[in-house]
Amino acid sequence: MAAATARPALSVWVDYVCPFCLLAEEAVFKVAQSHSLPITWQPFELRPFPTPTLKPEDPYLPTVWARSVYPSAERLGVPIRLPSVSPQPYTHTAFEGFQYADKHGKGTEWTMGTMRAFFQQDRDIGKIDELVDIGRSIGLDPAELRQALEDRRYQQAHVEAREKAYARGVRAVPTIEFKGRVFSGVPSVGELEGFVREGLGEGK
Fold first, then answer.
1. Is residue 71 reached through a cis peptide bond, with omega within 30 degrees of 0 on the bond before it?
2. Are 14 and 173 in contact, with CB atoms under 8 Å apart?
3. What pLDDT score was predicted for residue 121?
4. Order of strands, edge to edge, in the sheet holding 39-43?
5. Which parts of the chain register pLDDT below 50?
6. How many CA atoms lie within 13 A of 177 on its CB side?
7. Cα gap 152→160, rounded to integer Å
């Protein structure tokens, strides 16, 4: 009997401090599930060190959240709030944690747990203690995770993933790629469904 053909993956580039990445969660999971597609999470740092990160007390973030994030979240039914952490954390350590989690089969749980920790629990995801606690909550070995983060064991893996994103033309998040086609921004379930169906040659 011939082996089953592997389903193509839905690749999703995110940054853990981008609220729109959390808002895209419902569409990504629903459409991936309906077509039995694996999800491949990919890191993209909007402001890699040493680029200054944003501060919630400055006018920019409250304005963007009032105009776009909160209305979109209300429409989608996603609980979210502007984190008070100031300045916002760099995400390279969290992404190194993702590399560890993904190696242990927990990439999706880490991605969602980290974004929810920041946007729903107001936790500083730049701190190793917080990341270890997230890891513990999804079943990772906390001592081993802490050692990996403190030793920067997955630094090179993250740098390579970040460079791969730039090489593929990713410049914003969320960016979703399926079978060579790209969708940028937060899709509705219907939009992403049509995007995937076209990629599968099924039409809208």
1. no
2. yes
3. 98
4. 39-43, 10-14, 175-178, 181-184
5. 1-3
6. 15
7. 14
